[in-house]
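Subgroup meeting minutes
Present: P.N., E.W., G.H.
Scribe: E.W.

1. P.N. recapped why we're keeping a running log of single-chain structure predictions: easier to compare across weeks, and new members can see raw inputs and outputs side by side.
2. G.H. added today's entry (424 aa).
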Amino acid sequence: MERYEIQSEIGEGSFGVVQMARHRESGDTVAIKRIKKRYKTWDECMNLREIRSLSKLKHPNIVKLREVFREDQELFLVFEYCGRNLLQYLSEDFTDRGKRMPESEIRSLLKQALTGLAYTHKAGFFHRDLKPENLLVGSGGTLKLADFGLAREIRSAPPFTDYVATRWYRAPEILLKSPKYSSPADIFALGCIAAELFLGKPLFPGTSELDQLSRIFAILGSPDRSWTDGFRLAGAQGFSFPSGPGQGLSSVLKTASAEAVDLISQMLAYDAARRPSAAKLLTHAFFRPPELDSLLEALAASTSSRPTPSTRRLPTERPGWSCPKDRNGFESLPGTQDLDERPAAPVLPGPSRKARDALFDDQLEELLRDPKLCSVDRKREYRPRVPDPPRDSLCLNPAAFRVPSYLTGIQPLSWLSQPNLLKF
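Output recorded in log:
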């Protein structure tokens, strides 16, 4: 401890005392946690759950364990200093001033908490003691998970003790003394914290385990029969669930948006198997940026103003199938029948062979009147060149000629080639 200068005491718990100190050489401000229990060997210290978990968890939203040392059988854990916890931040900046925390601030804090929790669960640990006092808020609004003294590995073999987590944030399966529970208990605790940020006070401030369950039922209502584990645990304790719909979260969280209420409702599900994981909750609509909503609304408005494209029908693959006739009597290309929605193309008459011969005779007679042109060779040389019409226009009846529908009836589909408005 000679390398550190103690400045003030931050707090004291059942397992240790936390003090703010300054490193004499570097001048860094740190938080030192002195464990009350005595440790005779270094191996005992290294077996602590908090040291085992934090030595493996390296994440911006998890408090950093900088150093561990032992003096006179006392164990000291040196952490980065974050200033204050979430409860102090809520009361000092909002509740004591008669203000409500804005939803944008709650969204930022919850997103950071879920990000750190998702990393913790993926690494194979669950916290078991989430509460506002164990969520630290540093400079710039950075939130960090702290106090991993009760953390356990997810793969650890049960039974687990039921005296974990502060009662106000304890999951129903723990209140019913389930011997095996896992990471969904952290999700329930964080859901209680989220509701507390909106209310400015705890959501379920029970005075006992029975009172805690009663407060949960009063708001969330009675669970349905699909929660088989809950009814089995309640039967083992001689406890019967009350019947009734409950007050409802939407009536309690009056200042919260519909997306926020839906998020907290999923986190506070009775059945642990139905609570989404922390990674899944990060994809909820509550965490969608407001700018994305405006872009989606603009895209929906622009799409509704465009003409609806007709559905393209692919040709049916069956023996003896032939292309259908269009309104002009010509065979349409496969797949373009529905695109021929414009009026029929104007009639383009083509010259018949009789008309061409008459035109040739008139021009030839005019040439023969010239005395300078009297030989047959000269006559052939000056034979007028009448261009042949296209093959498609050679028909006996000029009035029946029309441009094929697959050449003139296709509507432009340029709107399909517009670039995407959204890039993820």
